[in-house]
């Protein structure tokens, strides 16, 4: 239902004047920052309008563009980084069901099925932080979203189709001190996840069995 746009997912902190409901104001409620100027952007296809600050600091320029279904920020005319996403309801889906679906597709659902740190001998989730860890893969080796029992349960991030993750999990040996941290890479699809690791963890050679 492309014409039924209803949800502002993420708002830029200070570079965007109160958007969504307040974007029709005659002007922003504060003066532009030094080196910046306010500009009103609107896109009928996306279904969103907002006041944004275009900034020129000499060594760095910041502007905003519409990209897909999002208002995105750019640094030095680089790749757009979505700040405000407008998401559609599926055919026949109510607003309530759409909200439940979107908030259900988050990193806390993954972290919630991992064992607690105390279950494999650590005093706290922070102590075991690097042993049960998931992160996005893209332009950098480590990108958001992050999946961890330390942060994801209280601060979940949305998981979307097409995202690529590395999941690094801990496998302790029976001697009580040896262990391995095994990483699998996977891509999120419309029907679930597909492992894309070139060498599946189940087939890893073991030098010394414990």
Protein model, in words:
By secondary structure, the chain is mainly beta. The chain has two domains: about 5-105, no CATH class; about 105-205, Creatine Amidinohydrolase (Alpha-Beta Complex), CATH 3.90.230.10. The protein has two helices and eleven strands. The chain has helices spanning about 95-105, 105-110, and strands spanning about 5-10, 35-45, 50-55, 60-65, 70-75, 80-90, 130-135, 145, 165-170, 180-190, 190-195. The chain has a six-stranded antiparallel β-sheet, with no helix packed on it. A hairpin with a 4-residue loop joins strand 2 (about 35-45) and strand 3. The longest helix has 10 residues, at about 95-105. The chain is elongated.
Mass-distribution shape: elongated
Count of helices? Answer: 2
Overall number of strands: 11
How many structural domains does the protein architecture include?
A: 2
Mean pLDDT: 75
Query: What amount of the residues lies in strands?
Result: 35-45%
**Helix and strand pattern:** EEEEEEHHEEEEE
The helix content is under 10%
In whole angstroms, the N-to-C terminal distance is 56 Å
Structural class: mainly beta
- Overall radius of gyration: 22 Å
The strand line-up of the biggest sheet is 1-6-5-4-3-2
Which regions contain 5 or more consecutive residues with pLDDT less than 50?
Answer: 1-24
How would a textbook summarize the main sheet? 6 strands, antiparallel
């Amino acid at each position: 239902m492309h014409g039924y746009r209803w949800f502002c997912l993420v708002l830029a902190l200070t570079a965007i004047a109160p958007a969504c409901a307040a974007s029709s104001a005659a002007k922003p409620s504060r003066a532009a920052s030094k080196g910046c100027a306010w500009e009103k952007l609107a896109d009928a296809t996306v279904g969103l309008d907002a006041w944004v600050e275009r900034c020129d600091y000499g060594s760095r320029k910041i502007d905003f563009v519409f990209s897909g279904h999002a208002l995105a920020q750019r640094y030095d005319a680089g790749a757009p980084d979505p700040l405000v996403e407008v998401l559609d309801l599926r055919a026949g889906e109510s607003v309530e069901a759409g909200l439940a679906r979107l908030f259900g597709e988050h990193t806390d659902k993954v972290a919630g099925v991992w064992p607690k740190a105390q279950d494999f001998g650590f005093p706290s989730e922070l102590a075991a932080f690097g042993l049960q860890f998931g992160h996005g893969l893209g332009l950098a080796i480590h990108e958001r979203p992050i999946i961890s029992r330390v942060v994801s349960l209280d601060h979940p991030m949305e998981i979307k189709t097409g995202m690529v993750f590395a999941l690094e999990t801990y496998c302790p040996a029976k001697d009580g001190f040896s262990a391995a941290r095994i990483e699998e890479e996977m891509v999120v699809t419309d029907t679930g996840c597909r492992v894309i690791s070139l060498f599946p963890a189940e087939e890893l050679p073991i030098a010394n069995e414990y």
